[in-house]
Amino acid sequence: MAMPRTYIDWYCPDCGLKHTTNKRSFSYPCNCPKCGKNRITFGFPLLPVNKAWCDKTPQQYNLLSNQKDIQVYLQAATGERVGYVMDPDWVPDCNIAAYIVAEEVIKICETKFLFSTQLDQLKKVLAAMNKCKMLSYENERINRLNELRRSIILDRIEYNELKEEEARWKRQKVRI
Q1: Which of 33, 46, 76, 164 is the most buried (most CB within 10 A)?
Q2: How many CB atoms lie within 10 A of CB 88?
């Protein structure tokens, strides 16, 4: 397979227009040339994936107490999402697969609390994550390929610019 020569520079989320380029660009139009809407977005469109993340530092979610908790956020590739506030000691590692984080949060929720109003919503998000697990993996792969494609092109451009600058310096050195 040949090395890529272009990458997606900007796109319109409304009509789906994608602008590809083979050079570094620092600007993009305000209005879409195809549909005319003002929603141009820099970069390439990210495909939806299952995600799990949490707060970096504990925060006070309950205004009636001084206890600081961490909220774990779960989002399925199909759009279902839920946030669950937990004690910092119980928070699972959010850097692993999203469905594993969801399973751990549900397990903690079932063992630590007799009654939780969000348990059904957590289970619904986990079910949605499991249904679209393969789609999420495929979308992650495509997103990563687009990211690598962009970096390859920009690195190639930088390499060529540095080689040209080096050649100029050598020519100037010979003249001196």
Answers
A1: 76
A2: 13
Q: What is the pTM of this model?
A: 0.80
Domains and CATH numbers, the chain: 1-45 (2.20.28), 51-131 (no CATH)
Asked if 76 contacts 128 with a C-beta cutoff of 8 angstroms, the reply is: yes
Nearest-angstrom CA–CA distance, 83 and 63: 17
Q: What's the token pair of residue 8?
A: 């997606």
Q: Helices then strands (H, E): number in the chain?
A: 3, 6
Q: What does each C-alpha distance from 103 to 56, 97, 125 come to in angstroms?
A: 21, 10, 10
In the chain, pLDDT over 90 holds for what percent of residues?
Answer: 72
Cβ pair 47, 143 in contact under 8 A: yes
Closest CA to 123 of 146, 103, 144: 103
